[in-house]
Amino acid sequence: MVTLPLVIFVLYECRLRNWYVLQILYSWAFGLRPFSARLGVFWTAVATTVYWYLYPGLSGIMTYLVMLYIALLATTAWRAIARVQFFGDLWTWTKLCAFAGSLLFVVSDFVIAVDKFRHPVPYSHQIIMLTYYAAQLGIALSVVDSQVDALLENSAAME
What we know:
Layout: H1 4-30, H2 37-54, H3 62-82, H4 93-117, H5 124-141, H6 147-158
Helix pairs in contact: 1-3, 2-3, 3-4, 4-5
């Protein structure tokens, strides 16, 4: 006989897999240029710190699933933020939207994780919904007029 907690866990695990795919696609869309190893190290440190904060509330398979999700989310943030280069005039408002969207995803998912695995967060639902939809808006706006990136790269290569 299948119990309700098992069904809820399986549905949650399937939802997590969808989020894994989403974060991988976002990271791929943001690309690997510029690489910015320092920023990668920074986001690795942030991801490690967040994981160790959440670890006491994790058990079983969630220990590994949450670790993987944090790694994917940190990679997405790293790739989105690395695209913004304030020095050298190689930034556009679309890159700033990706930057803001990725940071808002981090905030949204951090609040979800703390609320689920550590302690209740006051107004968590409102915080999560506000940051999540603002993050989606930022990511969506980041693809508007995306041909500007190619034009900037071509003009920089010609100089």
